[in-house]
Write a structure and sequence with these properties.
Elements: E1 2-4, E2 27-31, E3 52-53, E4 56-57, H1 58-68, E5 73-78, H2 84-88, H3 93-101, H4 105-117, E6 119-124, H5 131-137, E7 148-152, E8 156-159, H6 163-174, E9 177-183, E10 193-197, E11 211-219, E12 230-239, H7 242-247, H8 259-268, E13 273-277, E14 281-284, H9 288-300, H10 306-318
Parallel strand pairs: 1-6, 2-5, 2-7, 5-6, 9-13
Antiparallel strand pairs: 3-4, 7-12, 8-14, 9-12, 10-11, 11-13
């Protein structure tokens, strides 16, 4: 189900709303206004977020992750040329009736799944001015009583699903903003945004081997300048104060407003910011190489496709 931005509390399909009073989340923001140029010519007509990982569009995987984290509203930040994303969340009664009349129950359930898991609302970003700008566009999608919200970047699949639930627990314990990070080999840090974290003996440090206090962020540093080997990935649990920080963030290269700059403002003003270090895996759906790996990974785990694909791959690699 889709709608335009609505200021009233969002209810999930079962009639409940996200429990923001106990530290949970109600709204997940999904920035999806990009042009998808790495996937041209396919993305000339099909939004990148609708390209299927085996048989499930990337945007549905994100919607499922959001619902599993307790969210009831998916605020999709998009542009007029990508309205196909929002159409994906609309019911197709003719298709459903046809599948039902033909007894295709499995396919019918797949078609209905996304409509039953979460309510999607459209947020317009008229110009591509950076991730921070996209997140700022979604402020009107939140209810007045929401003091936090999540951001899931559709280019990033963080596995296994459930990392946002752990990030919510971190916020419940420490407050403020919580980010998701991975440890990478030292020679790979230049490919990522890298966290500067408090040393174990510092006053701001926390006693948790999976959580670190963030004291700063460095975007794609040289190896010798990297403050740590903990790098950012596309999962954010943001305190609502981020919107005020974004309004005070000066545009950077290309006139873009970066979320990392806004987070730096919060850190400088004493807001708690922590990173949860995830020990699972990740797929980058933002480039064809990463997308292919995700498709193979998901297909190998499939009871339908896995066994035959594994045999084919083994034979192909032996040629």
């Amino acid at each position: 189900m889709t709608s335009s931005v609505n200021p009233s509390p969002a209810a999930s399909p079962d009639g409940t709303s996200g429990d923001v009073t106990s530290g949970g989340i109600r709204t997940v923001v999904v920035p999806a206004a990009g042009l998808g140029t790495r996937f041209l010519p396919a993305t000339k007509t099909v939004p990148k977020e609708l390209l299927p990982v085996v048989d499930t569009p990337g945007i549905e995987l994100i919607a499922s992750e959001a619902a599993q984290a307790g969210a009831s509203r998916l605020a999709v930040v998009t542009s007029p040329r990508k309205q196909g994303i929002m159409e994906f969340f609309d019911r197709d009664e003719l298709l459903e009736d046809t599948l039902e009349s033909r007894g295709k129950t499995e396919q019918l359930n797949k078609v209905r799944a996304v409509n039953e898991m979460i309510t999607a609302v459209s947020v317009n970003q008229d110009r591509p001015l950076g991730l921070g700008h996209a997140i700022g566009c979604a402020e009107g999608a939140l209810d007045d009583d929401e003091d936090s919200f999540a951001v899931l970047l559709p280019d990033d699949l963080v596995l296994p699903f459930g990392v946002m639930n752990e990030m919510i627990k971190v916020r419940q314990r420490y407050g403020g903003t919580v980010l998701c990070g991975f440890e990478v080999p030292e020679d790979e840090v230049s490919n990522y945004g890298v966290f500067d974290i408090a040393d174990p003996g510092d006053e701001d440090a926390v006693d948790d081997d999976r959580v670190c206090t963030v004291t700063g962020m460095v975007e794609k540093p040289d190896v010798e300048d990297a403050p740590s080997t903990i790098v950012a990935t596309g999962r954010y649990l943001l305190d609502r104060s981020i919107f005020d920080a974004l309004r005070r963030t000066k545009p950077g290269k290309g006139g873009e407003i970066q979320i990392t700059d806004a987070i730096e403002i919060l850190i400088a003003e004493g807001h708690p910011v922590h990173v949860y270090i995830h020990k699972g895996g990740r797929h980058d759906l933002g480039n064809p190489g990463g997308f292919i790996r995700a498709c193979v990974d998901f297909a190998l785990d499939s009871e339908t496709y896995g066994p035959s694909l594994k045999r084919w791959l083994q034979n192909r690699l032996e040629e």
